[in-house]
Amino acid sequence: MNLRKTRIATFIFWFLCAIVFCSGAALAQPPGANEMPSVVEVPAAAQAGPNFDATAATNAYLAQIPPDKIARSNAYFEGGYWMILWDFVYGAVVALLLLNLRWSARMRDLAERVTRFKPLQTFLYWVEYLIVVCVLTFPLGVYEDYFREHKYGLATQTFGPWMGDQLKNLGVGVVLGGILAMLLFGIVRRLTRTWWIWGAVVSYVFLIFVVLIGPVYLVPIFNKVTPLTDAKVLNPILSMARANGIPAKDVYQIDASRQTTRMSANVSGFANTMRITVNDNLLRRASPEEIQAVLGHEMGHYVLNHIPKALTFGLIVIVIAFAYLRWALDWALQRWGEKWQIRGVGDTAVLPLVLLLGSIFGFVITPIMNTYVRTQEYEADMYGLNTSRQPDGFAQAAIHLGEYRKMNPGPVEEWIFFDHPSGRNRIYAAMRWKAENLNICVPPCSNAYGVARSAGSNK
């Protein structure tokens, strides 16, 4: 069977699978809204007083979570450990399949028959490659991103809209990935000795470009982004920003509920496109104190320059990755290049090998990357507590995030797999802050020494 017939047969097979998935998904309904109280419910052991103890307060908050909810979030998060492994293994198998069956070489040959213009050859190969890989990885992707998310009540889309987002993602990948592929292969062909240095530079500049355009041009492809206008929510946020020297005029909201039940907020963009965005799940389900705590955290990312710092760290990682690629590609092509019909590093057919080696590098440094991000998140947590003075709102936010994050992992487990501090550590940090600031924190925290407010009376 020739390559064209093989592609047609594979496409038909997965198209039929998609029909089956659609039929099953039609029965799936978005989970009901998990509405939360509009106030922070402070457990008795966590209420401020002369005998306040941070550890007891932390345990009291954790005790509010029903055991079945803990088991559910633990199962989801721990299953994610295996998904990291299966994603790596599955991707490696696909890459080796493309190399050993010489599909990659045949895709290159097809691109060369269409045009003699090298950059266009690279782009055509990239489109072929991306489509074939998307088809081959579809079974794992649909399980991981659709069925598994529905199983744990974290997804709200039926299959049709979900598939629409996947096609949008494919389109973005074709354009941005194609541009980067043309740039990098152009460098490799012209600078055969120093390609890895200039490739790292171009990749870094491209990363900055994507971060820069992301909030303005990429996010709106998938979600509706609008300025937050609810004065009851917006005014305390802007007041907090002004008090901390942040020149914020707008906060943005995103309709994430069309895809997920997760609550979140983020700082995105770079330079003039940097913005704070909250999703509508947070606005609907969180108390005012919780929203202020979360936004204080996001302001911490902004004030502490975490995006520029992350980009600097990214430059270091990219340079190391390209140095590793230079050595690993030379070694692998000497051994198997002729078998795979790859002519050299500048041959587009080498792409599966590049991505395979890159996935090995990323898999190995996962704990390092997680530790770097987790450190930034902890710094933002501390800034957010000092800014919002809402430790109880912060504790409630950690419990909400515990719907899909394990609350109480072991220290080694947290070091390897967590890119944020665990729920227990975040609640303890908030309660420790509260213990040291009983005389200055704002309601409902500031109920110390005779100014106590019960959970039912918080307004």
In short, what is this structure?
The chain contains 17 helices and 4 strands. It is mostly helical. α8 crosses α12, α11 (288-303) packs across α14 and α14 (366-388) runs parallel beside α17 (423-436).
From the structure above, extract its key features.
459 residues, mainly alpha, 4-stranded mixed β-sheet, 68% helix, disordered N terminus, disordered C terminus
Could you characterize the architecture of this molecule?
With 459 residues, the chain is mostly helical. It has 17 helices and 4 strands. The protein has helices at residues 3-25, 54-63, 67-100, 103-114, 118-136, 138-151, 159-190, 195-222, 231-243, 280-285, 288-303, 306-340, 351-364, 366-388, 391-401, 411-417, 423-436; strands spanning 225-227, 252-254, 265-268, 275-279. It has a 4-stranded mixed sheet with strand order 1-2-4-3, sandwiched between helices. Helix 7 runs antiparallel to helix 8 (195-222), helix 11 (288-303) crosses helix 14 and helix 15 runs antiparallel to helix 17 (423-436). The longest helix has 35 residues, at 306-340. The protein is elongated and about 75 Å long. 31% of the residues are buried. The model is unreliable at 1-39 and 446-459 (pLDDT under 50).
